[in-house]
Amino acid sequence: MTEGTLVLAIQGGADNWSPQRWVERFNAVAGDRKVVLLPDPAADPDAVHYAAVWKPPQGVLAAFRNLRVIFNLGAGVDALLADPTLPDVPIVRVAVDDLTGRMTEYVVLHTLMHHRQQRRLRDDQARRLWRPPAQWAASAVTVGVMGLGQLGRDAAAVLRRIGFAVVGWSYSARAIDGVECFSGGDGLAPFLAKTHILVCLLPLTPDTRHILDRRLFERLARNSPLGGPVLINAGRGGLQVEADILSCLDDGTLLAATLDVFATEPLPADSPLWSHPRVTITPHNAADTDPDAISAYVAEQIARFEAGGPLRNVVDRARGY
Ligand code: NDP
Ligand code: OXD
Question: How buried is residue 42: exposed, middle or buried, by Cβ count under 10 Å (0-12/13-18/19+)?
Answer without folding.
Answer: exposed
